[in-house]
Write a structure and sequence with these properties.
The chain is of the alpha/beta class. Helices cover about 35% and strands about 25% of the residues. The protein has one domain: Nucleoside phosphorylase domain (Rossmann fold, 3-Layer(aba) Sandwich), CATH 3.40.50.1580. It has a 5-stranded mixed β-barrel. The longest helix is centred in the C-terminal third of the chain and has 27 residues. The structure holds S-adenosyl-L-homocysteine.
């Protein structure tokens, strides 16, 4: 996610205008309003982009001088639910970087927020950092590998212009939170908690692709209501706030270089 090396195309290296943006989203409910907003079209057959057998879905189109690819990991082939979580997110991000060669990745989605850290329902955060909270390996150095903390691309100008909050993001493969997770999230100093971000960050970093993380709060983790219930109650309304924020982010990116962000 740091600005990449010189063998990268100009835009990814920070000097040319950004032309290809990859939006990675975990859930269909989060993805479809953005598909409509940016007037993206389905890119069938998916096998022409992704290996046969992968349930991953890609939409694409041109918007304000940018080529946008929006990918989501699709439905679990057996259970029919959205393929949320780190494994699917990492795989679809990996394949998309290889096939689509984006200049910038936007991982957009919903998240749990900590009111003790200033989060409220409907807030949209730009994550300054991403780390894992459920990869406990209590051996020196492996412990740090497990946490996998990374800085995201710094976007000082975007933050000045857009009305987004800033906070650290902690990622794990569960919607609920065990006491172990809670301690690790506190150690990560996180304000928001999701199930994909740090995995997308890991892959983006591997291939020196700048990445930003736009996370809208559907539920308050340190509040009274059960997370799953609160998440489902707020999903549709908060998705509207997420779409609004992602649109503003993409509008801001249009015509700029990575180093202008
Ligand atoms: N029952 C839900 C399951 C979605 S899982 C359904 O209707 O399908 C939750 C998704 O929202 C994940 O993609 C995750 O990144 C995000 N999310 C929202 N609130 C979260 C929280 N409190 N903890 C972890 N992930 C959360």
């Amino acid at each position: 996610m740091a600005p990449p090396q010189s063998d990268q195309p100009d835009a990814a290296a920070g000097s040319g205008a950004i032309s290809k943006v990859l939006i990675v989203i975990a859930m269909q409910t989060e993805a479809l309003p953005l598909v409509n907003k940016f007037k993206l079209v389905d890119a069938p057959p998916h096998e022409s982009t992704f290996p046969k057998g992968a349930p991953w879905i890609r939409y694409h189109g041109n918007y304000k001088g940018l080529h946008i690819d929006l990918v989501w990991p699709g439905k679990d082939p057996v259970l029919g639910v959205d393929s949320v979580g780190t494994v699917s997110a990492a795989l679809v991000t990996y394949a998309s970087i290889q096939m689509l060669k984006p200049d910038l990745i936007i991982n957009a989605g919903t998240a749990g927020g900590f009111k003790a850290k200033g989060a409220s329902i409907g807030d949209v955060f730009l994550a300054s950092d991403a780390a894992f909270h459920d990869r406990r390996i209590p051996i020196p150095v492996f412990d740090m590998y497990g946490i996998g903390a990374r800085k995201t691309l710094e976007t000082p100008n975007m933050l000045k212009e857009l009305n987004l909050k800033v906070g650290k993001l902690s990622t794990g493969d569960s919607l609920d939170m065990t006491p172990h997770d809670e301690t690790a999230i506190l150690n990560n100093d996180a304000t928001v908690k999701d199930m994909e971000g740090a995995a997308v960050a890991y892959v983006a970093d591997m291939f020196s692709t700048p990445a930003i993380f736009v996370k809208a709060v559907t539920d308050i983790v340190d509040g009274e209501k059960p997370t799953a219930e609160e998440f489902l109650q707020n999903l549709v309304a908060v998705t509207a706030a997420l779409d609004q924020a992602v649109t503003e982010v993409v509008d801001f990116i249009s015509g700029k270089c990575i180093s202008d962000l």
